[in-house]
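ok new one. same drill as before - structure tokens go in, u give me an amino acid for every spot. 406 of them this time. try not to just spam alanines like last time pls lmao
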């Protein structure tokens, strides 16, 4: 009997679907990072209090997490997932450009919430389609490539915002309308470059039954991810740390500039190591490589506590931060795809994204509160403890050499 030709796009990992998804991630992140960079200054021109920025981000992140969970379950029931992903990218693009129509803070809230709702809806679909486009042996490279491209967008976006603001002055509305260029290009990449074949196995179970059917190894993995995430603070706190520690040596302006430069280096290492992590993931035990990434995070937090924080020490901290995030995001996705049957990939990625979203919210709030109340040693000690515990637990995921999910 000749070999089946049912899904020929899986033969080479860098196929049109992987390339299209990677380009869409770069372009979409480029688009919304322009808006994110300009948004605080735009709100300031309205005389808006800082609390509005927190409200806008909090509501948007909450809606995004809900959308990821709902979309993950729903798309497992569809023969074709691509229309959902196209719609998600389009809604994100239009919502982001919608900042340019705002005349009040609640208009920005509505636009941002709409954009993040679309972003949340597309995320588990994108990951499930990425996994379906390659073989299990190349999950790491596919997810690493997508993370690398996404992070390149996060580097280019703020630089573009800076250039546009310099060129246009305080005409923020035009800056926001410019986000349509990379945003619509992302929609075009998904529409015309990403290929999808109809799925043969479509889920018909309820949401609750779908959760119950998720493998035990995946649930153990989620516990490790959740504990790690509860300590994984937003790395904008590292910018604040660097600014505070370097001000006595460099002055306020010099310290601020150095902190921004360190964060750029952080993102460069993040982008560079995302694909390296994926390449390694296809050659070694994924759970143990992810545990090593979690362990690097613990070492970074301990360095903040135990070492004198001069410029070079902080540079090492930022670089370690970029590397461990690259390993974390690439390996969590590729290990998730390996642990769960393909017909449940949408739900599994949706649940994983929701757990990560909850962790992002809790960790930044808790670490920030501990820092204010007890100092950096307690705040980053809390993170180091959870990083280490997450590393131990994820090391045990699939450590016995159980076969991966089909």
């Amino acid at each position: 009997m000749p070999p089946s030709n049912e899904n020929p796009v899986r033969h080479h990992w860098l196929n049109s679907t992987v390339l299209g998804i990677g380009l869409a991630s770069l372009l979409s992140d480029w688009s919304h990072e322009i808006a994110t960079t300009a948004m605080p200054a735009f709100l300031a021109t309205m005389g808006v209090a800082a609390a509005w920025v927190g409200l806008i981000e909090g509501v948007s992140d909450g809606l995004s997490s809900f959308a990821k969970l709902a979309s993950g379950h729903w798309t497992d029931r569809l023969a074709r997932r691509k229309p959902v992903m196209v719609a998600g990218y389009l809604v994100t693009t239009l919502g982001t450009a919608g900042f340019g129509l705002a005349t009040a803070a609640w208009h920005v809230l509505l636009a941002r919430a709409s954009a993040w709702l679309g972003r949340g809806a597309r995320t588990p679909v994108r990951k499930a389609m990425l996994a379906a486009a390659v073989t299990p042996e190349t999950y790491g490279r596919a997810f690493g490539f997508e993370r690398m491209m996404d992070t390149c967008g996060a580097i280019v976006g703020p630089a573009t915002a800076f250039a546009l603001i310099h060129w246009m002055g305080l005409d923020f509305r035009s800056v926001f309308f410019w986000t349509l260029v990379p945003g619509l290009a992302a929609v075009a990449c998904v529409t015309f470059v990403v290929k999808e074949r109809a799925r043969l196995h479509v889920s018909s179970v309820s949401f609750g039954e779908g959760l119950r059917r998720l493998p035990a190894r995946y649930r153990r993995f989620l516990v490790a991810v959740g504990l790690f995430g509860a300590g994984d603070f937003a790395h904008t706190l590292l910018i604040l740390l660097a600014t505070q520690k370097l001000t006595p040596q460099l002055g306020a302006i010099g310290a601020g500039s150095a902190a921004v430069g360190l964060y750029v280096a952080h993102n460069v290492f993040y982008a560079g190591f995302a694909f390296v992590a994926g390449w390694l993931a296809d050659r070694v035990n994924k759970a143990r490589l992810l545990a090593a990434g979690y362990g690097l995070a613990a070492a970074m937090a301990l360095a903040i506590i135990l070492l004198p924080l001069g410029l070079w020490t902080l540079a090492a901290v930022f670089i370690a931060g970029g590397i461990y995030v690259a390993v974390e995001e690439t390996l969590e996705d590729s290990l998730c795809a390996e642990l769960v049957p393909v017909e449940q990939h949408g739900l599994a990625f949706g649940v994983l994204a929701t757990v990560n979203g909850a962790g992002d919210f809790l960790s930044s709030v808790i670490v920030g509160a501990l820092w204010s109340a007890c100092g950096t040693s307690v705040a980053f000690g809390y993170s180091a403890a959870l990083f280490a515990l997450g590393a131990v637990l994820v090391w045990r995921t699939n450590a016995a050499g159980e076969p991966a999910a089909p």
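The chain has a mean pLDDT of 87. and btw The two ends are 22 Å apart (CA to CA).
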